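Action item from last meeting closed. Structure (80 res):
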């Protein structure tokens, strides 16, 4: 459970709603880290740019990226 209350759709501005829509479209749900970062729009934007940049990087094979994500998530107990 997060210590910071997540931003819900009803209280979100247009930018946050747009990010929520894209996140739900890509992942099937809006994950908690996005809802927490939605308190600060510049942080949310930077987080999105970081994720986009990591996805676009081709210096490492895509299969190796997925394996690294799974290993890191397993080590910290994250379901994603």
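Sequence:
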């Amino acid at each position: 459970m997060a210590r910071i209350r997540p931003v819900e759709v009803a209280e979100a501005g247009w930018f946050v709603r747009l990010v929520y829509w894209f996140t739900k479209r890509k992942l099937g749900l809006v994950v908690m880290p996005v809802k927490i970062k939605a308190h600060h729009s510049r942080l949310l934007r930077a987080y999105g740019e970081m994720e986009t940049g990591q996805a676009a990087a081709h210096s490492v094979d895509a299969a190796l990226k997925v394996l690294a994500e799974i290993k890191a998530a397993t080590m910290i107990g994250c379901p994603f």
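Note appended to the action item: The mean pLDDT is 89.
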